[in-house]
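Protein modeling request. Please complete all fields; requests missing the sequence field cannot be processed.
Requester role: graduate student
Desired output: 3D structure, token encoding
Chains: 1
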Amino acid sequence: MEPKECVLRPGEPCTDCGECEMCDLEPNKVCDNCMRCLKFSDADYLAIEIDEIIEGEEEIEK
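Delivered output (62 residues):
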């Protein structure tokens, strides 16, 4: 099985460090999807770029 790729450092293998699951505003807190990080903008709209859609469990294991 091929190792997962790090989502924060493309090209590097995932080490399961958990850094990608941490809150951007409170680095010691695991992200709970509160969306506060998106409210600190004066933009007319906010967006999150979606780079992949995983539809089944077999795709998650890739």
